[in-house]
Amino acid sequence: MTQKIKAFTKLFLPFAIGILLIAAWFLSSRNTVHKTLVLQRQELLVDLISTTLDRDLKTHTSDAQFLARLVAQHFDEKETIEHIEDAFSDFIRTHRLYFILRFLDETGTEQIRVDRSFAGPVVSPSSILQQKGNRYYVRDTMQAGEDDVYISDFDLNIEHGKIETPFRPTLRFGCPVIDANGRKRGIVIMNFEGDSLLNQIRMQAGNREGKPMLCTSDGYWILGLNSADEWGHLLNKTDGPSMSRQFPEAWQTITNQDQGHVITPKGLVTFASTQINPRSIISKTPVSQEAVNGGWKIMTWVPRQDLNVPWINLFIMLTILTFFLVGLGCWYHSQNKIIQAEVKANLRENEERTMAISQSSHDAIAMIDGVGTIIHWNPAAEKLFGYEAHEVMGSNLHTLLAPLKMRHIAEKGLEEFRRTGTGKLIGKVIQLEALAKGGITIPVELAVAAFDFKGKWHAVGTIRDMTQRLRDEQKLKRSEETSRALINAPADSAMLLKPNGTIVAINKVGAQELGGTPQNLIGKSAFNLLSPDFSETHKDKIIKVRESGSPLNFEESQGNRKLHINVYPVKAADGVVDRIALFTRDVTEQRLAEAALMQSEQRFRDVSEAVGEFIWETNKHGEFSFITDDVSLVLGYSSGELLGHMVQEFLPQEDLEDFKFWRRGLYEKPEQFSNIEARLITKQGGMIWLQASGTPYYDTAGEFSGFRGAAMNVTDRKEAEQAIKASERKLRALAESAYDAIIMIDNQGHISFWNDAAERLFGYTEREAIGRDVHDLIASPDEREKSKKGMRGFPLTGKGPAIGIVTEHMGLHKDGLQFPVERSISSFRLGESWYAVATIRDITEQKATEAKLRQLATTDGLTGLNNRRRFMELSEQELSHAIRYRRPLSIFMLDIDHFKRINDDYGHDVGDKVLRFMADISETALRNADILGRLGGEEFGVLLPETDENAAMDVAERLRHAIEENSIQEGEEVLNVTVSIGVSTLSSGLNTIKSLLKQADKALYEAKESGRNRVVKA
Questions:
Q1: Residues with Cβ within 8 Å of residue 318, at least 6 apart in sequence
Q2: Is 514 contained in some domain?
Q3: Range 334-354 average pLDDT
Q4: Can you tell me where the transmembrane regions are (predicted)?
Q5: How many Cα atoms sit within 13 Å of 613 on the Cβ side?
């Protein structure tokens, strides 16, 4: 054992030291790169959060300035409080990041307070307003100048002296309210939802490795690692968790620098300070903004373990595994060296034992060196090949035993073996032919193995005589092939069973039926794989076949399947049945097809009888070879009377020549024909019209065999057509003199009459129109499908949605032009069919006149705008929509300033030009959805759907400015025109067009009185 350990240590120790050094270097370098990347990502994250926070705070200061200026503007109004409350409500509704807006007077007392709730803005009554003069943010804001904005600490919202629960992180923005005289009238305070900033910080950090943190300049948590640690300085927990206590090493650096990073025993801390500090004033002029208590600190923390590569544990395990594998390899290698010596000692003993085995073996054993010289030849080889050992020792094996045709291949393989010790025969067992003494060829089985002896390759071969075995194998193979062919030849299930049901052989189809493969089903009982009822039936049949020795055929049902089963006995040499061959064929589809064929034939006969047709077939000579029985209802002859006869035998003499000519061409070049009409003489001597269709059929060799087809009695239709033609001649005489288009169609919508007026109206000649579908020809594409749908019941009833009434439609001219027409339709019955006659008139001029009248009734003739009546109609419609769906709506009235002076100074022509100028500018400036109209004189009205008061004021101001910016050139003089506008908006008190216009008119009057060229809201 000591010797083994020494050998192992000597081999393993250098490997172990090398692996350890390489692993340590690799892990150290990867950790350094990983730590650098983590640091870069954290610095970018902290910078992103800091920049975003500073930007958002600056944005909110502008909101405070806006509200302060808004409050200052309303101090001179009569209803100051109400206007400010409305403005605050609108602001908090659209700015959801603020939850309280307040206006406090010079003493710090709340005068107006609006809270945001789930239901919307809530204005606090005066009874619950509070005195906030003692709060630090109120005192500090009071010290700010005009347009200065004060930013409070990041703290929790306090109501009535208590911290609101659940906690509501809050930032307050304050701005003084300075009136027009420069007097400070109070301050505006906005409570900002602090959670939105904190959530934004969390969102920006996302799932990165760094955990975001935010603390005060004293180190107290605003956003900490644990929510329970936050706001300790406001909850009298100043001795609780804080940045300075949890990260003392990092805090010492953070308090002395604006930004940077610190690696502590707990991990990496990356930090930056905000540019805007709490409790500071943001002035409109650059001044120092040093905070009373310093700025906020934005930080991220990456735990110590995350600074290492994430796969460090896996790497250590792989290193340990490498140590183990190398150690194991070294151990085995050292043991092999020791064992090798022992093996050599035993080799000689094994050689002697091998020689003894060779001498006693029943198989021939021969050994050769690398050049093919025989160096060993056992007694069995002497017996097999007839050569004594002394005769072959030193001879070439291939020259002695290999047939001449194989000798070259053997010598070539020996060359490769001599170099490499490998070859196609090495390690394999093959069958080949060998030469025995006297030139006799015998089949042998050869197994060759190679070994290296003193640096040279040798081979030893074991040779067995295969003569008798090959004879037996040929017999067995022939028997197996015969059985396999019998089993696998059928495309259906086939199996060979013992009388007890054990499967001896089975084909693939049969195995699939039993839910397996041939390999895993052989040896199993077929009866156990079948259903109990099916199994018992098979047992009885097999017993019967075994006892009788005769085959048996039968059919059985298995579920929805029909199976045809053949059972054959297989007898042994003594005549006893020892095997049963079972063949099963699924005939379900065949039986279903037979039933379907019978049903189809019956259905075919029923249909042909129902539609008044009979089916026929002729041979290649034109003689009837088949005809259905219902032919007797048509011709009076039975089918038996017609078989062997030709069609021309039943034709009138005057039609015979034309029919033979047509038939000759058809039989010379057989092809399908349809709807061929001919007169035939019935058995009773009467004359009928038949309509026939047929197609050629061919035998299996592709030779023409005759025609098959169907024929039906169309005598009634032919007589009706003749009557129609007579009627048409009368109708045409009347229709040709008509001014309106007259068109007649049959029950399929096909045109059968077309007068000259129709040709003039639609552009199609009578030849082009007759036989065409009327809807496809003259109906507009938009109405075509609807018209066709209305015709569906017409063939049966002669009725339809357009029958008997006068309607207006769009007609389609041949050149593609659509035009309005007036149409009246009546129907009549002729024979068994319905027909329709339409009278169509061009109403293009009538429509143009109606459109002109509508325009005159709704449009102002001078400006082209809606007149007062049309404006009121459209406005009432929009008002109804706005009230129903609770949507905003506004109206404003505008009046041209000094319009009377323009008329007096320049004349009414120039005044009209100003009115048209006003209309053009207004149409350009307004939206398509807005309704513009001239109400009278120089007054115009505008209705704005989906527009509240603020938006309406913006639109009115934009329109006023557009008119003011444009001018009218009158000769050498330029006229500048201005307008005054009054605006009113839909509300509970103003909910009619009349009241809205009245309020807008009052506001317009106020705009006139206050100097003109301005917009005033009601």
A1: none
A2: yes
A3: 71
A4: 7-27
A5: 16
Residue 640 shares a structural domain with residue 770: no
What pairs with residue 170 in β-bridges? 155, 193
Q: Nearest to residue 273, comparing CAs of 242, 299, 311?
A: 299
- The model's pLDDT over 847-892, given as tens digits with 9 standing for 90+, comes to 887 777 677 778 998 999 999 999 999 999 999 999 999 999 999 9
Q: What is the DSSP letter of 216?
A: -
Please indicate, yes or no, if residue 395 is contained in any of the structural domains: yes
Mark whether 638 and 737 lie in a shared domain: no
pLDDT of residue 447 exceeding 70: yes
pLDDT of residue 287 exceeding 50: no
Sign of CA dihedral 994, 1000, 1004, 1010: positive
Q: Which two tokens stand for residue 517?
A: 């493969």
What was the pLDDT predicted at 726?
65
Q: Encode 975-999: b = buried (16+ Cβ within 10 Å), e = exposed.
A: eebebbbbbbbbeeebeebebbbeb
pLDDT tens figures, 228-240: 888 888 887 777 7
The two structure tokens encoding residue 234: 């406001």
Q: How many CA atoms lie within 13 A of 110 on its CB side?
A: 23
Q: Write out the residue range of the structural domain in which residue 109 sits.
A: 59-195
For 54, other C-beta atoms within 10 Å of its C-beta total 14
Are residue 884 and residue 993 in the same domain, yes or no? yes
Task: Give me the residue label for tokens 């094994």.
Answer: 350
What residues are annotated to the active site?
938
Per the CB < 8 A criterion, the answer to whether 833 and 747 are in contact is: yes
Q: How far is CA 529 from the centre of its chain?
A: 46
Tokens 């990347």 belong to 37
Q: What whole-number distance in Å separates Cα of residue 535 and Cα of residue 539?
A: 6
Torsions phi, psi for 152 (to 5 deg): -85, 180
Q: Tell me whether strands 979-985 and 1015-1017 are parallel, antiparallel or unpaired.
A: parallel
Is pLDDT above 70 for 487?
A: no
Domain count, the chain: 6
The DSSP annotation for 830-896 comes to: ETTEEEEEEEEEE-HHHHHHHHHHHHHHHB-TTT-SB-HHHHHHHHHHHHHHHHHHT--EEEEEEEE
Question: Chain-wide mean pLDDT for the chain?
Answer: 85
Q: What is the mean pLDDT of residues 386-411?
A: 85
pLDDT of residue 934: 95
pTM (predicted TM-score) = 0.36
| The pLDDT of residue 794 is above 80 | yes
Cis bond before residue 801 (omega within 30° of 0): no
Numbers of helices and strands, H then E, in the chain: 32, 42
Residue 844 sits in the same domain as residue 733: yes
Could you tell me how far CA 723 lies from the centroid of its own chain? 62
Q: Record the tokens describing residue 284, joined without a space.
A: 């409109």
569 and 479 Cβ atoms separated by less than 8 Å: no
At a CB cut-off of 8 Å and minimum separation 6, what does 270 contact? 39, 42, 43, 45, 46, 210, 260, 261, 299, 300, 302
| H or E, element range at 201 | helix 194-205
- Dihedral over alpha carbons 953, 959, 965, 970 (to 10 degrees): -140
Residue 291 pLDDT grade (very low, low, confident, very high; cuts 50, 70, 90):
very low
Alpha-carbon span 36 to 306, nearest angstrom: 12
Token duo for residue 213? 């943190």
Q: Are both 478 and 456 inside the same structural domain?
A: no
Amino acid at 596: A
Tell me how crowded residue 326 is: count the other CB atoms within 10 A of its CB.
16
- Within 8 A by CB and 6+ apart from 1016, the residues are 980, 981, 982, 983, 1003, 1004, 1006, 1007, 1010
Q: Mark residue 148 as left, alpha or beta (left: phi above 0; alpha: psi -120 to 50; beta: remaining).
A: beta
Look up residue 990 and give its two tokens. Answer: 């103003």
Most confident listed range (478-492, 756-770, 788-802): 756-770
C-alpha 824/C-alpha 840 separation (Å) is 7
